[in-house]
Amino acid sequence: MSALGDYFIVFWGFLLIGLMAIGGYFMFRKFLKSIPKEDGKSDLDWEKHYLDRTRHMWRDEEKALLEELVSPVPELFRDVARQKIASKIGQVALQKKKNIITQDILIEGYIIATPKRDHKFLRKKLKEKNIDAQPYEELFKKSATDYSEGWEAKYNKSKKH
Fold first, then answer.
1. Higher pLDDT, 142 or 61
2. Which keywords label this protein (predicted)?
């Protein structure tokens, strides 16, 4: 066998190991999300719960805006991102005891559901649509990890000061 053939086999081996590692990483993340928490429900269960409870609250304008906001996500991961973000938006709407998901609720939920690196894109979209980002500045300042249980009370408390 030639040296080129040996290099090809080594390259192919590393490529396969790398692809399996990447696939394993994403499978492990999905597994972690499916593990029940203290309340007996997993993150995926809560996402499904909030989606089911708020499905009727979405208007066409908000659905279109959500689709626009998740459009930069690669198509392979877009459904997962849309579900995660929409469930957080639903959670915000239910916690605020709203009957309909408004643009304000959608933007708040989007900020809370997404990592800080995605906020630049949101700011750009808000500017394109002539939506004032000022009311959301307090949410933008925090990172996604700052939104633990009781995030709404902390947010409302900081708005009063």
1. 61
2. Membrane, Transmembrane, Transmembrane helix
Residue 41 to residue 138: CA distance in whole angstroms: 30
Contacts of 139 (CB under 8 A, 6+ apart): 108, 111, 112, 155
* Mean per-residue pLDDT of the chain: 85
Residue 54 in tokens: 């708020």
What phi-psi label fits residue 42: left (phi over 0), alpha (psi between -120 and 50 degrees) or beta?
beta
Q: Which of 12-21, 73-82, 137-146 has the lowest mean pLDDT?
A: 137-146
- Which conformational region is residue 83 in: left (phi greater than 0), alpha (psi within -120 to 50 degrees), or beta? alpha
**Beta carbons of 109 and 89 less than 8 angstroms apart:** yes
